[in-house]
């Protein structure tokens, strides 16, 4: 039986490390054709080599996702190479570790640009091709933070919440064109997301969170994301019992959850 992802053209942002790299390796194993994007061309080349795919089946496309004008240009390059885009994986992102009272507006702007507006720009660039081919799938890597706000992540939480609103609307608008949307909400995944997070001045936080260090391996997360996409899941939560419980507490027992969250505010 042919693998679901075999020969599908899948474009992944944030593909140079973490969940993005894990998705690239798993998709390669399942026979997809890949477009790998991130800022670091050398790291993308490393990931390309690790996929062991034929060179013609991988396009390394370095880009800064916050250069919104590059989105249509980059989409055109993918079409020129492969002729179609079957899946757009919005994985590029950056987190935050700072209090609201200390955080500059410029930091909030950067968080929204990377975590929200970049996905909008790329979606609008890719959508006409998917509409024309009458098929496509947007896989959006959100977070449990897109459902539950926690201390020192106000801008990150806001950007992830925004993703849900935008892609819920898009899902309904493009259904008749056979275009699907899956929003994945990982909890604690063992990546460098906290190390690379922004502090109140926009500098690198530089510390590994304890929960992150004990989190789910990125490869396992990637497999769960792709399984959800294959099943056409609209939204999926990936992580441990605690993270998943927080989502349901937020819906049914919000006061109890808010009390728990307050206990975790650092001194």
Automatic annotation (TrEMBL):
Q: Name one Pfam family in it.
A: adh_short
Keywords noted in UniProt: Oxidoreductase
Query: A GO CC term?
Result: membrane
Keyword field contains Oxidoreductase = yes
Matching entries from InterPro entries are given as: KR_dom (IPR057326), NAD(P)-bd_dom_sf (IPR036291), Sc_DH/Rdtase_CS (IPR020904), SDR_fam (IPR002347)
Q: Name one GO molecular function term.
A: oxidoreductase activity
The Ketoreductase domain covers 8-192
- Gene3D superfamilies, alphabetically? NAD(P)-binding Rossmann-like Domain (3.40.50.720)
Q: Into which family does the record put it?
A: Belongs to the short-chain dehydrogenases/reductases (SDR) family.
Protein's name in the database: Oxidoreductase
Taxon lineage: Bacteria, Pseudomonadati, Bacteroidota, Cytophagia, Cytophagales
């Amino acid at each position: 039986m042919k693998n679901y992802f075999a020969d599908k053209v899948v474009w992944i942002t944030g593909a140079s490390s973490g969940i993005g790299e894990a998705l690239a390796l798993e998709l390669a194993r399942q026979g997809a054709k890949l477009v790998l994007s991130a800022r670091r061309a050398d790291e993308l080349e490393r990931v390309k080599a690790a996929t062991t795919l034929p060179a013609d089946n991988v396009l390394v496309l370095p880009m800064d996702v916050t250069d919104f004008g590059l989105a249509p240009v980059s989409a055109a390059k993918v079409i020129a190479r492969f002729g179609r885009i079957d899946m757009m994986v919005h994985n590029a992102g950056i987190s935050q570790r700072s209090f609201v009272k200390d955080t500059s507006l410029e930091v909030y702007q950067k968080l929204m640009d990377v975590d929200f507006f970049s996905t909008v720009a790329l979606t609008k660039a890719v959508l006409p091709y998917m509409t024309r081919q009458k098929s496509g799938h947007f896989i959006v890597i959100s977070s449990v933070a897109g459902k539950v706000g926690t201390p020192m992540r106000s801008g990150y939480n806001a950007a992830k919440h925004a993703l849900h609103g935008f892609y819920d609307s898009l899902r309904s608008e493009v259904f008749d064109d056979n275009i699907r949307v899956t929003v994945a909400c990982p909890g604690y995944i063992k990546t460098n997301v906290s190390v690379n997070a922004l502090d109140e001045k926009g500098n690198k936080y530089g510390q590994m969170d304890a929960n992150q260090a004990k989190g789910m391996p990125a490869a396992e997360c990637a497999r769960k994301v792709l399984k959800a996409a294959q099943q056409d899941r609209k939204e999926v939560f990936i992580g441990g019992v605690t993270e998943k419980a927080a989502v349901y507490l937020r819906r049914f027992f919000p006061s109890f959850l808010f009390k728990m969250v307050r206990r975790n505010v650092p001194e």
